[in-house]
Design brief:
Elements lengths: L4 E5 L8 H6 L15 H10 L2 H11 L4 E5 L1 H18 L7
Parallel strand pairs: 1-2
């Protein structure tokens, strides 16, 4: 029968996770991006998520299979950005 549908999930912005921020602290402010996330960790995630290009090649080679790549990195960055904007506009304080 074979595979008809496949979902491949990328990684989210792990450099923004509290555990990673606690486990890999840096005293260098340039180690963090505008959202307060560790740039080095997220750079690894972005390079892994380049897997999407390979998924596109698979799609052309397997036209009878539905292959979906979920970009969790962009989803998590968007969610964090909206959370920060919402907190600023509503006078809530964020702890991070």
């Amino acid at each position: 029968m074979g595979v008809r549908r496949m979902v491949i999930s990328g990684f989210g912005a792990l450099g923004c996770c509290p555990y990673i921020l606690t486990a890999l602290p840096s005293t260098n402010p340039s180690a963090y991006d505008a959202l307060g996330c560790l740039k080095s960790v997220n750079a690894l995630i972005v390079s892994y998520n380049a897997l999407q290009q390979a998924v596109n090649i698979l799609k052309t080679q397997s036209p009878n299979v539905t292959i979906l790549f979920v970009d969790d990195y962009q989803l998590s960055i968007t969610a964090i950005t909206h959370m920060i904007a919402s907190a600023k506009s509503s006078s809530l304080s964020l702890i991070y």
